[in-house]
């Protein structure tokens, strides 16, 4: 049967319609991909804002904390705009899961100047955390108080499952107290000279820099990086420095100063592990525990794994991969159970 002209036109029409339909479908698919709403940002969003210039909901951080919900099961974000906030901030036990979100490390600064020497008093600190689940992002905490009259504590953290990321801690003596179970400090800087980090906490510092300051004139007491206070074998406490850099503060010539000790034991079972880190010359290769004239108990635990730099200690301080694994974020602070909800960057195992 010969093809009629009419049939040819019909065939052509069908072909054109088919091609046009396919093109339209492809076009729509492309448009949908481009115009599709962006995935929600993976971070804690602020519910209220603090701004020193009055442009936010509150002018002081303390007022914002007072206004935050108590016993919260969800993270409650408080944005803290750039500026220096001169105040002492307390996060009490009932203020759970607060997240301070600053404008940048060194850009949003919380500062106070009270030094603390009375062990019967609660620690005077620029930030005092007792509420579990606390998170701080992009903030500098400093205590510029007089170190000759006591510890100058920037942050005293007694809470569980807390995380600080992209923060700085500045002071001279006892700068950061870490005393709760499961504390994580990531990509942060700590500046201090004596007992810089102290407490009974089970704490991991990951990808942090610890800058040991030069001794102040007349302050010739021995310096220790960490004053770890684990006192029983059943305690989960211990400090882990993973992927950290531990060195003299930038530009400070400390060649004439006595070496800095890695730790000072505040309990018979004090425990500190340095892994995958850079140990600078300021630490001195032999600087271990600062025990003065005391004979250190054999139960102290100061270990190294896969470190580098002139401050690396003797071979008997090294542990094997199996032992070191126990001190990574997953096993040691059960990080995989709670850190993902904070959205802070972390690595569960070795770096
Ligand atoms: C300490 O801080 C308070 C409150 O900001 C301030 O009034 C005082 O001048 C400061 N003292 C010193 C010695 O810096
Ligand atoms: C690792 O070291 C511990 C001692 O701290 C030892 O008991 C264990 O057998 C070692 N494991 C391996 C795989 O070498």
Automatic annotation (TrEMBL):
One of its GO terms (molecular function) is pectinesterase activity. Residues 48-336 form the Pectinesterase catalytic domain. Keywords: Aspartyl esterase, Hydrolase, Membrane, Transmembrane, Transmembrane helix. Gene3D superfamilies: Single-stranded right-handed beta-helix, Pectin lyase-like. The chain crosses the membrane at residues 12-35. SUPFAM superfamilies: Pectin lyase-like. Pfam families: Pectinesterase. PANTHER family: PECTINESTERASE. This is Pectinesterase catalytic domain-containing protein. The lineage of its organism: Eukaryota, Viridiplantae, Streptophyta, Embryophyta, Tracheophyta.
């Amino acid at each position: 049967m010969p093809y009629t002209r009419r049939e040819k036109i019909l065939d052509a029409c069908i072909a054109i319609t088919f091609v046009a339909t396919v093109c339209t479908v492809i076009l729509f698919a492309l448009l949908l991909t481009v115009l599709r709403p962006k995935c929600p940002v993976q971070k804690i969003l602020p519910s209220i804002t603090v701004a020193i210039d009055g442009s936010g909901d509150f002018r002081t951080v303390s007022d914002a904390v007072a206004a935050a919900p108590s016993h919260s099961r969800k993270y409650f974000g408080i944005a803290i705009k750039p500026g220096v906030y001169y105040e002492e901030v307390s996060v009490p036990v009932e203020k759970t899961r607060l997240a301070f979100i600053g404008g940048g490390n060194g850009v949003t600064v919380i500062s106070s100047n009270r030094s603390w020497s009375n062990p019967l008093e609660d620690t005077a600190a620029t930030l005092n955390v007792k509420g579990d689940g606390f998170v701080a992002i992009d903030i500098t905490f400093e205590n510029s108080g007089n170190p000759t009259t006591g510890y100058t504590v920037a942050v005293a953290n007694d809470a569980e499952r807390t995380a600080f990321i992209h923060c700085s801690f500045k002071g001279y003596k006892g700068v950061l107290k870490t005393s709760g179970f499961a504390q994580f400090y990531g990509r942060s800087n700590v500046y201090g000279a004596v007992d810089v980090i102290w407490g009974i906490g089970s704490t991991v510092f990951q990808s942090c820099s610890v800058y040991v300051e030069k001794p102040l004139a007349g302050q010739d007491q021995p310096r220790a990086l960490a004053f770890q206070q684990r006192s029983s074998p059943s305690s989960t406490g211990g400090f882990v420095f993973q992927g950290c850099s531990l060195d003299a503060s930038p530009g400070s010539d400390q060649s004439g100063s006595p070496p800095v000790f890695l730790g000072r034991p505040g309990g018979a079972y004090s425990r500190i592990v340095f892994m995958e880190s850079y140990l600078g010359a300021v630490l001195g290769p032999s600087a271990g525990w600062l025990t003065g004239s005391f004979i250190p108990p054999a139960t102290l635990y100061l270990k190294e794994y896969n470190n580098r730099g002139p401050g690396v200690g003797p071979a008997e301080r090294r542990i094997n991969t199996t032992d070191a694994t126990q001190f990574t974020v997953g096993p040691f602070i059960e990080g995989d159970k709670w850190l993902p909800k904070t959205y802070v960057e972390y690595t569960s195992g070795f770096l």
